[in-house]
Amino acid sequence: MSSERCIRRNSSSRRKPSSRKALFFSLGNEGNTPNPMGEGFEQLQKTLKAKAPKDFHWDSARYPDETHGSTVLLAHYAGLRTVFADWQMPVNAQDGGPEGGLAGIEKHYHDLTERYGCAVRPPENLVNQLGYQLMGQKKLDEAIRAFQRNVELYPDSANVYDSLGEGYENAGKLDAAIQTSRRRLRRAVKSATRTSISTKNT
Q1: Extents of the domains making up the chain
Q2: What is the mean pLDDT of residues 184-198?
Q3: CATH class of 124-194
Q4: Helix (H) or strand (E) holding 124
Q5: Residue 28, exposed/middle/buried by CB under 10 A (0-12, 13-18, 19+)?
Q6: Which one-letter DSSP state was computed for residue 122?
Q7: Percent of the chain beyond pLDDT 90?
Q8: Dihedral-angle region of residue 142 (phi above 0 means left; psi in -120 to 50 means alpha; beta otherwise)
Q9: For the stretch 144-182, what's the b/e string if a residue is b when 16 or more beta carbons lie within 10 angstroms of its beta carbon?
Q10: Could you say which DSSP state residue 18 is in?
Q11: Do the beta carbons of residue 109 and residue 141 sit within 8 Å?
């Protein structure tokens, strides 16, 4: 199949505006031009640059110091980086925090869910980190909202209640801090009990 036919087929098979398709291809030292393999590699690059759909993500690499067999590991690594190029949460250049704050986190992982077709939750440690960053900036209401969102996402984690309790404490909401600390203790005891039972059964 020619490179142009390959692109047309890929484009026509995408029924949703947001495609989850990506392509990475590589060539080892067997492709030094001029020869058919090297020429085909370069022709595919040119065709993709000229005619690939805007939402079709692709990349390629030449490995002149690698053989046909040794290029595999390098190509797999580079290919995964291409496929998941948008996975990492963008960070703010000024403070190193998640770009857009809590709303930015929610949007980023919602977009990943849409693209990859499976639920991708914001990581617990990322939301927790944002909460402490906001608390350090004295943005206590925003910090509490981040910690509360983490409780919604990870209700079985004792750590999220610990962080929320600390947020309430810093905001002077001592009754809420005490109640949250009690919830944290219940989760910690429950988790320790499960671990104990699991250990006994192994």
Answers
A1: 14-83, 124-194
A2: 67
A3: mainly alpha
A4: helix 124-136
A5: buried
A6: P
A7: 62
A8: alpha
A9: bbbbbbbbeebeebbebbbbbbbbbeeeebeebbeebbe
A10: S
A11: no
